[in-house]
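Hello again, I could really use a second opinion on something today. I've been staring at a protein lately and its backbone has me curious. You're getting the sequence in one-letter code plus the fold written as tokens. I'd be grateful if you could look everything over and explain what you see. No rush at all, and the record is pasted right below:
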Amino acid sequence: MDAAEKIRTRETVIEDTMNDVRAIETRLGVTREGVAAMRDRLVQMASHKDLFSLDDYPPPADSGSAMYRISQDDDDRFALYVNSSDGDRSTPAHNHTTWAVVVGFEGQELNKFYERRAVGSPPQTHQHMVEAGTGVAMLPDDLHSIHLTGQALNFHMYGLALERLDKREYYSETDGTWKFFAGINGILEGRPNLASC
């Protein structure tokens, strides 16, 4: 298919997925069952290998990672991103304050999960390698960290846009305390009708 047809097809696939995810949240709520069903629907979307690539969503030229917004409701809910990474990257243990789903597409993204304690470093409970055909689903207070060791392209979806998540907490191993993340900026616009705005 040519470039224009690819964009139109991609937009249809994204729109169909988002409609299904909204319906899942309405039907099942923000529950373990609900976020697992959202994850499974996003895994289904990720099977369209011909529609998403590192050429479409390249990582930054200076190495690191970039977050492309590919769908978001007008009220900032149901925000879907492509996370494109080239090189080593990791995050501390953190929550999201909204439901979250991470689904693999290309490469590997190790997700570690933790239990929050009143005092001290949160102990790790388990881990899951997110890669093509797999994903993880989290409730607002769940804790995880992300670890990348090479090029990867993954879908990240949140119940509310990242810019609105100003109460996300992370554990600082240096200080031994929980802190709030600084505001998020630098998200790239991946929606064709808004990319040039």
Summary: The radius of gyration is 16 Å. Residues 3-185 form a domain with the Jelly Rolls fold (CATH 2.60.120.10). The mean pLDDT is 93. The chain has one domain: 3-185.
